[in-house]
């Protein structure tokens, strides 16, 4: 109770410091259904999205702004402000293992592969091999905002949107901006963006570099001689071009790269994650007439990681595995929006995505010399066609949407080869190619009357198993998890009903949802220290999501809460999981935040986050305690182009358990971290 009171007092401080001067902003964008977008819809200058889909109004959604990089701010931590949005680990991209950074919503957890579709300007972002998300890759990008759409089934988003879609949208820079900050544990964080007109076009360059000595991941009281701080070093550089290509048309090109170096707090646990992304988009977007978009993209990923074996007394450590994962993702998309009576209610299109990847591993070490080598991998393709029709009224009356999608998928011949490095081949397996058809879609309605709206939606979605889930076995300590090349695609049926109230200064929203995920992929315990990836019969998840937002002068107070009741339906070898709660899913979660929205000299934010108790493992034998954290920051702009800022993460220095081993060793997320620095723009 004392911490809640202290947190509430700190939440009030930024509001007291804020100026009363407000910035009025309005831009007349292209129309949907014959009317301009309202001013509260995010305006994205470099996104390539023809316009924000009005069809998403039938489902629960949130628009997150104030995504300024620097000062330790990270995209994945900003997303934690939305209750019910769960990342596989509670630690962020400075200390979590890169392969544990999947994301999901609505209790569909228990797996490090993302069950929510993450996109950047419409381009899918999941790792081509493992399905996890490289969150550090987005810290260098100037984001105009994030749109979180809860619930799956939107055919235009493509496969993978089981739990929802998290759309990241970049913003073209029209000036020079830079920041530099110094933080706890010798942390440095520098970012810069510069952009402007070049002839008839625009160009923007974004960059970021961050490093720190890190903290000791193992909780105090459990550390041994081998435990030390886990340093990190990360950077990224992006180039975006946008220029006219005739009347009402434009070409957008993007090229970005990132480099991520982390350590897990013992010898032999360093990881390297490098990536390059490129996309080319042609958009024909008249104020009236037929709209269309053509997009092509490529993802290149190269991941290396070491794993260690720590003695029971934590007084010695030895290498256990060295892994390298090269992977490639390719894709293309074409979308058409014909005009009907001055409106564009119909969206039709096709898309294609291909993933290719493999894991190369050395293991069975004698001292520091590996004795065995493994290589495993494969490829997959998905080709889909979709259509969506949205009709009715934007502001008052009935709005409805109906979408459908059909996909053809292929899994190429997979393989797994194991051999003794100085001896014969032990395993040489080839897995037959497979293919199939999947359908997805959504039907929804929304009724509007002045400030009140009532909505309902039903949907179906699906997800293809990742190459990692299909072909790669792995080991963590004494726990061995075998692969399963016969995994089936996950399929979800779901629905929701909700109500919203918005009178401008006050917004309230409540949503009831129910999901049934069949063939859910999970790591199933078969025997002590032995697991296998299997398709569960189902995960059933139902719950309620509530959000409230109040504009208070120059500040906005926002609160979110999610209650999730999820359980496993299992039989056969997984019968012991029947009726249990899925791993990594908390029943309760919430946040309260206060952020400035003014243009005066003072600004700030404060965010209280609560995450409930959850299970680490499928059997519920290992529990991660709940946690309450507070982040806050203040800024002072003492001239038109210069400001100073101070920011703190986990100001209570709360122990936030991120993982727990079978021997009871607790890994913690970010402890108290303080930052101070300056921003310059001109």
Q: What would you report as the Rg, rounded to the nearest angstrom?
A: 24 Å
* CATH architecture annotation: Beta Barrel
- Major sheet details: 22 strands, antiparallel, barrel
Q: Specify the overall morphology.
A: globular
Mean pLDDT: 87
Helices, by number, come to 3
CATH superfamily: TonB-dependent receptor, beta-barrel domain
Q: How are the elements arranged and paired?
A:
Blueprint: H1 2-17, E1 31-32, E2 35-36, E3 61-64, H2 75-79, E4 85-87, E5 103-105, E6 117-120, E7 123-124, E8 143-150, E9 164-170, E10 176-183, E11 187-198, E12 201-212, E13 232-244, E14 249-262, E15 271-284, E16 291-310, E17 317-337, E18 346-366, E19 369-392, E20 397-411, E21 414-420, E22 425-431, E23 434-449, E24 452-463, H3 467-471, E25 474-476, E26 479-482, E27 490-502, E28 506-518, E29 521-527, E30 530-535, E31 538-552, E32 555-569, E33 588-596, E34 602-611, E35 614-615, E36 623-624, E37 627-637, E38 642-649, E39 657-660, E40 666-668, E41 673-681
Parallel strand pairs: 6-9, 26-30
Antiparallel strand pairs: 1-2, 3-8, 4-5, 6-7, 8-9, 10-11, 10-41, 11-12, 12-13, 13-14, 14-15, 15-16, 16-17, 17-18, 18-19, 19-20, 19-21, 20-23, 21-22, 23-24, 24-27, 25-26, 27-28, 28-31, 29-30, 31-32, 32-33, 33-34, 34-37, 35-36, 37-38, 38-41, 39-40
Describe the 3D structure.
The chain is mainly β. It has a single domain (2-681), classed as Maltoporin, Chain A (Beta Barrel). The protein has 3 helices and 41 strands. The strands form 7 sheets. The protein has a 22-stranded antiparallel beta barrel. The radius of gyration is 24 Å and the shape is globular.
């Amino acid at each position: 109770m004392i911490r809640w009171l202290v947190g509430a007092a700190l939440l009030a401080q930024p509001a007291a410091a804020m100026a009363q001067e407000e910035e009025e902003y309005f831009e007349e964008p292209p129309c949907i259904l014959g009317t301009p977008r309202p001013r509260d819809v995010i305006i994205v200058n470099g996104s390539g999205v023809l316009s924000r889909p009005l069809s998403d109004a039938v489902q629960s959604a949130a628009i997150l702004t104030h995504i300024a990089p620097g000062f330790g701010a990270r995209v994945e931590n900003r997303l934690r402000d939305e209750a019910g949005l769960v990342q596989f680990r509670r630690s962020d991209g400075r200390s979590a293992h890169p392969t544990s950074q999947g994301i999901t919503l609505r209790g569909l957890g228990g797996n490090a592969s993302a069950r929510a579709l993450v996109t950047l300007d419409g381009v899918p972002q999941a790792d081509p091999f493992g399905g996890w998300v490289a969150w550090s890759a987005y810290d260098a990008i100037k984001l105009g905002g994030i749109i979180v759409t809860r619930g799956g089934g939107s055919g235009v988003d493509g496969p993978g949107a089981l739990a929802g879609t998290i759309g990241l949208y970049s913003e073209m820079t029209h000036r020079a901006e830079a920041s530099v900050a110094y933080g706890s544990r010798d942390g440095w964080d520098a970012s810069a963006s510069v952009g402007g007109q070049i002839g008839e076009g625009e160009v923007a360059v974004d960059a970021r570099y961050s490093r720190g000595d890190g903290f000791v991941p193992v909780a105090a009281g459990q550390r041994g001689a081998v435990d030390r701080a886990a340093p990190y070093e990360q950077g990224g550089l992006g180039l975006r071009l946008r220029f006219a290509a005739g009347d009402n048309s434009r070409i957008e090109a993007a090229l970005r790269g990132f480099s991520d170096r982390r350590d897990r707090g013992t010898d032999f646990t360093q990881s390297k994650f490098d990536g390059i992304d490129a996309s080319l988009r042609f958009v024909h977007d008249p104020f009236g007439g037929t709209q269309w978009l053509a997009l092509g993209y490529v993802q290149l990923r190269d991941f290396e990681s070491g794993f260690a074996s720590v003695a029971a007394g934590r007084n010695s450590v030895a290498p256990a595995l060295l892994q390298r994962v090269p992977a490639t993702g390719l894709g293309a998309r074409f979308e058409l929006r014909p005009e009907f009576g001055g409106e564009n209610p119909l969206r039709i299109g096709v898309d294609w995505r291909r993933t290719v990847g493999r894991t190369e591993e050395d293991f069975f070490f004698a001292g520091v010399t590996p004795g065995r080598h493994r290589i495993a991998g494969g490829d997959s393709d998905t080709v889909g066609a979709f259509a969506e029709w949205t009709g009715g009224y934007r502001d008052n009356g009935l709005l409805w949407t109906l979408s459908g999608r059909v996909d053809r998928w292929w899994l190429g011949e997979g393989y797994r080869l194991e051999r003794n490095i100085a001896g014969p081949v032990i395993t040489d397996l080839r897995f037959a190619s497979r293919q199939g058809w999947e359908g997805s879609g959504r039907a929804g309605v929304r009724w509007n009357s002045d400030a009140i709206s009532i909505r309902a939606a039903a949907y179906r979605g699906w997800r293809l198993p990742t190459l990692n889930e299909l072909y790669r076995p792995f080991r963590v300590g004494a726990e061995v998890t075998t692969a399963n090349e016969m995994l089936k695609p996950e399929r979800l049926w779901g629905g929701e009903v909700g109500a919203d109230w918005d009178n401008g200064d006050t917004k309230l929203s409540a949503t009831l949802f129910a999901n049934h995920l069949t063939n859910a992929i999970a790591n199933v315990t078969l025997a002590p220290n032995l697991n296998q990836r299997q398709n569960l019969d189902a995960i059933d998840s139902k719950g309620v999501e509530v959000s409230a937002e109040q504009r208070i002068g120059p500040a906005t107070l926002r609160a979110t809460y999610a209650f999730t009741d999820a359980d496993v339906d299992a039989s056969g070898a997984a019968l012991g999981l029947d009726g249990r709660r899925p791993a990594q899913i908390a029943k309760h979660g919430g946040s309260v935040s206060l952020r400035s929205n003014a243009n005066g000299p003072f600004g700030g934010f404060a965010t209280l986050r609560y995450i409930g108790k959850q299970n680490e493992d499928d059997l519920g034998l290992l529990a991660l305690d709940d946690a309450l954290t507070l982040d806050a920051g203040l800024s002072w702009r003492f001239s038109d182009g210069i400001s100073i800022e101070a920011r703190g993460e986990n100001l209570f220095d709360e122990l936030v358990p991120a993982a727990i081993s079978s021997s009871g060793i607790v890994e913690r997320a970010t402890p108290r971290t303080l930052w101070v620095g300056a921003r310059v723009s001109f």
